Every structure is written in C-alpha cells, then in structure tokens.
Amino acid sequence: MSGRAMPATSLVGWAIFAACCVAFGFLSGGKPSLWVLAVPAALGWLAVLIAARPMVAADRRAALNFALGVLALMIFFVHQTYGYTGKVRNFPLIVGYVGIVFCLLDIISLTGHAVGGAITKFFGSQIDEAEAGGRSVRREFIVFGAMIGCVLGIWLFGFLVFSPVFVIAWMMVGGKTLKQSVYGGLFTLVFIYLLFELAFKYELFRGVLFLWLMDS
Amino acid sequence: MFEAIIESANALSTASLHFLHFNALAYLVMGTCIGLLFGAIPGLGGTTALALIIPLTFGMEEANAIMLMGGSMAATSTGGSVSAILLNTPGIAPNAATTFDGFPLAQQGRAGEAIGAGATASAMGGLIGVFTLLAVIPIAKAIVLLFGPPELFLLAIFGLCAIGVSTGDRVLQALIAAVFGFVCAFVGFDYVSGIIRYTYGVDALYDGIKLVPALIGLFAISQMIDLAVKGGSIAGDTSALDTKIQRVSDGVKAVFRNWTTMLGGSAIGTFIGAVPGVGGTVAAFLSYSTQVQRDSNPDVPYGRGNIKGVIAPESANNAKDGGSLIPTLAFGIPGSAETAVFLGAMILHGLEPGPTLLQEHTDEIYTLILSLTIACVVATLIVLVLARPMAYLTLVDAHVLAPIVTVVALIGAYALNGEFGDVVVALAFSIIGYLMIRFQYPRITFTIALVLGEVTERSFFQAMGVSDGSWAIFAEGVPAVSLIALIVISLMIPSFRGWLRKRKGSEGAA
Question: Which residue, A75, A93, A76, is CA-closest to A84?
Fold first, then answer.
C-alpha cells in the first residue's frame, strides 16, 4: 500500500487545510477574537478529515477516528488558549502547536502514502494488530454504559446501597448464578463498610435521594 | 561529599526508628500482601495496586503511607513470578521472561524449586537495587544542585522523550499522550500568573484536575473496563496447578550456587531501571538473553527448564525497582508507570518531585528505601510459604473482579475530598484510559506530563524570566547542552532501531 498516489479529494483537503493554517496564523496576531479564529480552526479540522479518510484503509478507520478526535481537542485547546493574554498563554501555546503537529503526523502515518510510511519508520507508530483486535464495539458501549450507570446509581442511592447492587447485576449479566452474585454483592458491602467506614472513618456518599429524604 | 554521606547515615538511622512501631510494620506487611496479590493476578499489576492504595493513605502519617506503598511496589514482581511459573501466565509483563524456563520446570514437577529460586532471586535482586539506590543518593544530591530552571525544564522534556521512545513502536503516540497530559495539567489555577484557566466555570476544576481521581481512573478502572470488554477468566492453562509444590529449599540454594547469574541480572536490572521508561520488561528479557549468550554450554538447554533461566530475569526485574527510583527521587522523572503513580501519591502528601525532595525530605526517602528492603524479604517469605493459594487467585473470573475493583476504586476517588465531582473525574479518566489502551497511546507519558506539568511550566517561565525572554538560556552550560543532545538522540532511536531491524532482516535473508 506504501507509495500509493494521493486521491484528488485528499489533495483538495490538504490544500484547504494549508489555507486554514495561513488564515489562522494571520488572524491570531495581535488580540484575536475567538469567534473569528473558530472559523479557520473548525474548517481546518474538517479539511484534515476530508483529506485523510480516502487515504486510510478500512481496518484503520477506528484508529483514524480516534486520532481525528485528539486533533480536534488540540485545535480546540490552541483556539481557547488565545483567549488568554501575555505569559499565561506562552507555554500552553507551544504545547498546543506541538500537539497539533504530532496529531497530523499520527494521522498521516495511518495513511497508505509514502510520507506516512516514512513517519512510521522515523518515529515508530506501528499498531500491534493482536492487541488492537478482539474487542467488540457493542461490548465496549455496554461496559461504558455500565460504568456511567454505576456512577449515576451511586449519585442517586449512595455507595453503600448501590455498590452491592452493581456487583450483583454485573455478575449476573456475566453468567454467574443468583446465589454467587448475592455473595459477591454482600462481600463488597461488608468489605467497603469495614474498610472505609469503620477502619478509615470516611463517611461515604449517601446519595442525593437519601439527602433529599432527610431534608424533607 | 563526606558531609553528604554523614547526613545520609543520620537520615537512615532516623528513618529506621519508624520501623520500631507495630503500626508501621503492619502497614508494610499489608502493602506487601497487596503487592503480591495484584502482582500474581494477571491484568492487574503494581500500578493498579498503587492507584487503589493511594486513597487509603489520605489520613496516614507520611512515613506509614510510604511504607504501605513501598511494600506494594517491592512485592509486585515477586507475586507475578508465581503465576508465571505455575500457569505460564506472567502476573505482570516483566515476569514474561520467567515463563520460558519456569513453566517447563513446573511441568517437570519442579515447581517448588522454580518458585524458591524465583522468590529468592527476586529478594536478592531487590536488595541489590535498593543498596545501589542507597549508595547513589549522596552523589545525586550533589548533582541536582547543578540544575537550575532551564535544566529542569529540559530534563522533564528529556524524561518524556526517553519514556516515549521506550514504548517501542508507538513513540509518536507516546508523545501525543504527553502533550495531552500537559493540556490536562494546565487546567485550573495557574501559580505563575495567578489566574484560573480552562475551567469553563466548573468549580471542581479550579484547583486543577485532581491527580488521585485521575490516576485511579486512568490505571485502576480503565484496566477493569479492558478486562470486562475482553471477558473470560484471567489465567490460561491451569493444569499445572495440580503440580506438587515441593523442594522449595533446592531453589533457594540454586540462587546462591549460581550467584554470578543473580549478580549479573541484578546489575542489568538496576542499570536499566535507572534509565527513565525502559522498565522491568526490558531488564528481565535483557538479563535472560545475556545469560543465554554467556552460558554457551548449559547442562539443561534454556527454554526447557534451566533454573538459571528463572534466576536471571527474576533478579533483574526486582533490581529495577531500586534503579527506577534514582531518577524519580533525584529529578522527579519517574522511571516507570508505577513510579509515576507513586510520585503522584508523594505530591498528595506534600512531597513535591524535583531536587527539593532530596534536599528537604531525606527522612521520607530513607523510610522508602528501608520499606523496599524489608518488603523484598517479607514478600519472598510469603511466596515461599503461600505459593499455591496465591496461584489459585489467578482463577478469579473477570466478571467477579471487575465490578468489585471498580466500586472500591470509585470510593477511593471520592474519599480524597469527599466530593462527588472526583468520582466523575475518575469515570472520565477511566474512559480516556481505556481508549488509550484500545488505540495504543501509552498512558505512562500522559501520567508523567500530568504530574510534571506544573513544575515544567514553572521552570520554563522562570528560565524565560531570568533570560529576559531569550531562548538561548536553554543552550547555555554543559548540563543544558548535554540534555538537548540527549533529547535529540532519544528521538533518533526509533529510526535507528528500524534501520537495525532492516539490516538484521536483510542479513537473515542473505
């Protein structure tokens, strides 16, 4: 794949990106308005998206999307840094610009272009395919959902009530029997109560519902 | 220099007084047990253990907290050797080299001998590493005085580059992770200008992103998410658990019979540990391969149950603990992910990384050194007695482990300040940490940049202030120029490595 010619869409994308960089550089001089700066910043990111996508193989699209996400974050960071003046923004701006350059190199290294190959050779940005595979996106979303649900549940009902519930639910979904899951939940409850509440004298969060009930 | 040695001896004797208290020793043994447990269970490791221990240390005296954490740090790789030998599944990555000869020994019914040798070599390696650290500290104290703001700034950048390069084939991603770490470190009150940055009106961010919830999310919870996504039980082949564990003393004797192997491994481990970021895995494999090359005519071929193949990597991966603390304590540049988290914990207890640490907190440093020393011995004794029950721990299902560790970790994040916002921070960083694992962006450079962000920016600001805004200050004097040269060299290493690989490949083809 290395050394493949660049598609026309990509060429246009990179040209727009270069133009956005020039515009951003020009507009950022003096005391820039963040609203005005946002236009080349957002357009520049879109241009990289348009330029990079056709150049990246289908099995690397997930990595590309993540790299584009990080680039968006870096561009946003640099953009926001211009909201500060003087010495406050000096070091963050250096870090932000270096970050944008690294992100662009990362994105280019994912492409099949010769430049991407050269970057991979120089910096080393090989993906360990064995480690990257074997993960289902559906399962990832379920686990993320479970984690967010756990924090939400703790916020509502507190650690002492929701922690065993979370452990029981997780174990049952994982194929454990009700008895095993209840034992797991009880073990967790006893463990956190003894360790945190009794031994270390921390008052664990009781949950907003409990606090609301106490108030009313 | 003589004064420094006397001062060190005084600090060492003061630190040793802490160990006369029952509580202190209890914390040390507790830390050692936690380290052994987390080291033995594949997928957890010492960094997760430390991230979970930090919240327990909030109300403790500094010395007790250091003993708890030091015990855990010293014991992790000893615990990892048990699962490597009995299950062919390394508890932590540095134990991988132990499986080459450890597991064949277990299959031959010599598991006890392998465990005895592994645990004893770990203890001896650990002690040699710690004694080296002890010897180096008075010298390091003199060296750090040569470092001003420009050198400290360059040192932080060099540390990040060196650690980035050590991540193997993901250098660019390691550097991006470092930049992202700096970005997170900028959030909150800026001590240089006195203004609040990047908080967007969120009160919880005014003091910056709190290190402990971030580390708990990044290392403990993200690891649980990864386990849950991958699913299944942790250990692979468990048939070797049926093997009888006997003749442990033969393994202990084997270490002293092969003392040159143990000394060689310890020397490699200490040296490699002192280079930021290279870590225990490289130390263990380098020690193993050096041993194989040196022993051209072995009694038993390596890979088929040669006891020296257990001694060499085990002595190296424990010796690296002492070595990796040299840059951590002297310059505030952590040598590994574990020491980066440890540094975060030290900041929490008011011990700021950098040269001042060596100058003003010698008592705490020597307490740590003594903790590591005692923990090495305690961990070995525990392993020699309790090897089999420890191995059974690796059979715990991910569906049982993940929710319990997650809940305990979230409580740990909350317990720091009693603020629910910290739980949300831990959750956010757990997802960031998982995405970093998923897309192979090394978390270690992110952590180091997050920990060192404030010091680095302050050093940069001070250097620019001294030089009246001239960048030339970063290239003045031998230390600064040497550091710039080291940064350039470290960034050239990946391409050199690629060239070397290509050359080897073409030689092989020819």
Answer: A93
Q: Tell me if B225 and A143 make a contact (CB, 8 A cut-off).
A: yes
A180 φ/ψ angles, rounded to the nearest 5 degrees: -60, -40
DSSP code for A198: I
**Chain A residues in contact with B198 (beta carbon < 8 A):** 77, 80
List the Cα angle A41/A46/A48 in 5-degree steps: 95
Q: Which two tokens stand for residue B478?
A: 């031998």
Q: What is the pLDDT of residues B34-87, one digit of tens each?
A: 888 888 776 677 888 888 888 888 778 888 888 888 888 888 888 888 878 877
What interface predicted TM-score (ipTM) does this complex get?
0.91
Rounded to two decimals, the pTM is 0.79
Judged by DSSP in three states, A40 sits in: helix
Which tens digits make up the pLDDT trace of A156-205? 999 999 999 999 999 888 888 999 999 999 999 998 898 888 877 788 89
B170–A124 C-beta distance less than 8 A: yes
Query: Can you spell out the DSSP letters for A124-154?
Result: -B---HHHHSS--HHHHHHHHHHHHHHHHHH
Interface test with A, best of B229, B434, B487, B491 (most A CBs within 10 A): B229
Other C-beta atoms within 10 Å of A192: how many?
20
Contact assignment for B225 to A204 by CB distance below 8 Å: no
The answer to whether residues B87 and B289 touch, using CB atoms and an 8 Å cutoff, is: no
